[in-house]
């Protein structure tokens, strides 16, 4: 089994000799316990810890579904205490810094790699003998749903692709299937076949709707869809109802902050029965899967925009590098799309039995390794600041917009500090190497 240590956190360990920032571990326990926004707010207000979150920690809180409002409150609370109030040291034990997935060698990419990669952002549970992943976002926001929150549709040369703001979105929205469980909410089970998205579509009455395909749904070239091993027709429902669907007015289909326009459940129930299935959503063309979804001409008409496909490009990530998630670069959508072997090397039971171990003190990194981490820092921070800026631009409420800006500003401030720390450590590392070389002559 491969454990993933966050590159930013690893750099922090190198430079400061510490793990999580003061109070972060206690706050994260509240988040993972599924505390409501009001309960989190009360916890922050009563805390005497001057929170000073690292870049890694801010990005992680965003990835597990903590709102910018709560993050801004943590940031502002820490600033207030540092500006003059007495601060009491946290009595919490120091936990490992946030772990993030890194790319393994190609021959180690299997289902177990997906198990490991998703573990930091949720928990694995076994339901009727099947392993499912429950994102922490489900606990943070009970209304959360896949292919709706923190993402939007992008038209590519492979058809409609789901672009996820989450750094972990490269896996659950392109591999595997989702199910809405009565007791656990939305759960994901992995698969080995990559797709631009795995959803079924409906349209009508000036709306588009989609729902994640459930476990047992499989697409076969030259055959079409099968469900639980049997061929099904073009209008097969896969057992889905209006409760699994997300609907938006057609004129807002291409919005970058799409969930702001999603209909409430009562509206979805009404619209659902006035819409029809969009057939032939998936086809094979040029030896790869194309996800047609809503006809481009129709979308262009409703949104009053000319839609030009962007190129789907595979990310240039080598073994040991951090996986950043989907990215938009000019006229391309960059995705991490490894070939996943079907046979796992271990199950999530191993993760649960082993737990999150306290890492050993980090070894001294080489200047080249530190430079790689510095670049990773820049990429991840810029990616998240772009998402925050988009959300702020589409936010009508001034207070909510300011909370998004506070998070973006704090990311910028912390990234400068940590960039400098990495540069200092790289210089020291180079000096140590030079001294060894001189002694060896």
Helix content: 25-40%
Distance between the termini: 41 Å
Report the β-strand fraction as a percent range: 15-25%
Average the pLDDT over all residues and give the rounded result. 85
- The strand line-up of the biggest sheet is 12-8-7-13
Content-based structural category? alpha+beta
Summarize the helix and strand pattern as letters: HHHHHHEEHEEEEEEEEEEHEEEHEEEHHH
Oligomer state equals single chain
Number of DSSP E strands? 18
Query: Number of helix segments?
Result: 12
Q: What characterizes the major β-sheet? A: 4 strands, antiparallel
Describe this protein's structure.
It is a single chain. The protein is α+β, with helices and mostly antiparallel strands. The chain folds into two domains: 7-100 and 363-440, no CATH class; 106-335, no CATH class. It has helices spanning 7-16, 24-32, 37-46, 55-63, 68-82, 111-118, 136-140, 265-272, 296-303, 348-354, 367-393, 398-440, and strands at 122-127, 130-135, 151-156, 159-164, 177-181, 185-189, 199-204, 207-212, 217-220, 224-227, 230-231, 246-249, 276-277, 282-285, 288-291, 311-314, 327-329, 332-335. The strands form seven sheets. Strands 12-8-7-13 form a four-stranded antiparallel β-sheet, covered by helices on one side. Strands 9-10-11 form a three-stranded antiparallel β-sheet, with no helix packed on it. The chain has a three-stranded mixed β-sheet with strand order 16-18-17, with no helix packed on it. Strand 14 and strand 15 (288-291) form a beta hairpin. Helix 5 (68-82) crosses helix 12. The longest helix is centred in the last third of the chain and has 43 residues, at 398-440. The two termini are 41 Å apart. The relative contact order is 0.15.
């Amino acid at each position: 089994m491969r454990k993933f240590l966050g590159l930013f956190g690893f750099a922090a360990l190198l430079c400061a000799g510490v793990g999580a920032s003061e109070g972060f571990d206690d706050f994260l326990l509240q988040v993972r316990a599924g505390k409501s926004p009001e309960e989190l707010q009360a916890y922050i207000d009563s805390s005497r810890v001057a929170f000073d979150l690292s870049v890694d920690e801010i990005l992680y809180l965003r990835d597990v579904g903590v709102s910018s409002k709560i993050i801004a409150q943590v940031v502002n609370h820490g600033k207030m205490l540092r500006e003059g109030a007495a601060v009491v040291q946290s009595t919490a034990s120091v936990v490992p810094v946030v772990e993030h997935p890194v790319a393994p060698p190609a021959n180690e990419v299997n289902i177990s790699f997906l198990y490991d990669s998703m573990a930091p952002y949720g928990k694995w549970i076994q339901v009727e003998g099947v392993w499912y992943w429950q994102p922490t976002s489900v606990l943070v926001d009970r209304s959360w749903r896949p292919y709706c929150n923190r993402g939007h549709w992008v038209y590519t040369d492979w058809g409609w692709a789901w672009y996820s703001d989450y750094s972990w979105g490269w896996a659950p929205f392109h591999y595997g299937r989702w199910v809405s469980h009565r007791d656990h909410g939305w759960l994901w089970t992995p698969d080995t076949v990559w797709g631009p998205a795995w959803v079924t579509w409906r349209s009508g009455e000036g709306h588009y709707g989609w729902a994640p395909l459930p476990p047992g749904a499989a697409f076969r070239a030259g055959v079409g869809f099968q469900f639980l091993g049997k061929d099904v027709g073009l209008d097969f429902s896969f057992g889905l109802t209006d409760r699994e669907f997300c609907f938006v007015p057609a004129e807002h289909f291409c919005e970058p902050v799409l969930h702001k326009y999603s209909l409430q459940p009562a509206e979805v129930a009404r619209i659902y029965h006035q819409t029809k299935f969009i057939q032939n959503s998936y086809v094979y063309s040029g030896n790869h899967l194309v996800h047609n979804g809503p006809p481009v001409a129709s979308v262009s008409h409703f949104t009053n925009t000319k839609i030009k496909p962007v190129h789907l490009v595979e990310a240039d990530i080598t073994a040991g590098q951090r996986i950043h998630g989907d990215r938009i670069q000019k006229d391309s959508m960059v995705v991490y799309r490894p070939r996943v072997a079907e046979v796992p090397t271990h199950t999530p039971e191993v993760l649960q039995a082993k737990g999150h171990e306290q890492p050993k003190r980090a070894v001294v990194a080489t200047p080249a390794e530190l430079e790689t981490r510095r670049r990773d820092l820049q990429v991840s921070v810029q990616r998240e600041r772009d998402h925050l800026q988009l959300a702020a631009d589409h936010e009508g409420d001034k207070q909510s917009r300011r909370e998004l800006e506070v998070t973006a500003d704090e990311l910028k401030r912390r990234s400068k500090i940590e960039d400098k720390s990495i540069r200092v450590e790289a210089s020291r590392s180079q000096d140590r190497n030079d001294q060894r070389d001189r002694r060896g002559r």
